[in-house]
Write a structure and sequence with these properties.
The protein is of the alpha+beta class. Helices cover 39% and strands 20% of the residues.
Amino acid sequence: MREIFVGSEAIASGRLTEHELRRWCRALYPDVYLPKAASPTLRDRTEAAWLWSKRRAVIAGVAAAALHGAQWADAGHPVELIAPSARRHEGLIVRNETLAEGEVTKVAGLPMTTPERTASTWAGNLPVDDAIARIDALLWAVRFPVAT
């Protein structure tokens, strides 16, 4: 089993007992688990972060770019989320921002910022060299219009 899951849901459904959860699984975030034998990937941590947000957050930044297909994403990079009533947690960057209609898409069943919104955020918030490198990698993965 490599599945990321909510521990309380697994116990409530009878899939696991509390003892099995403690013995065979480890928490990535509060009440979000992965089997102990697995090494979490960026994709695993991204899904876990979304579950931790009670399935309300929108994935952004490097995690969104990686799910859009950008190859450069560092597996150890914090997962960025956009969520109302943003709470802080280690390994996460959580921002309370407003997203316009059309700035959210789904990839692999997870809500995330569109490539355009991801690039726009980087362009406005990162040093120029970092923004250019990230946007270039994202453009290699997914073609989208760039305003000049």
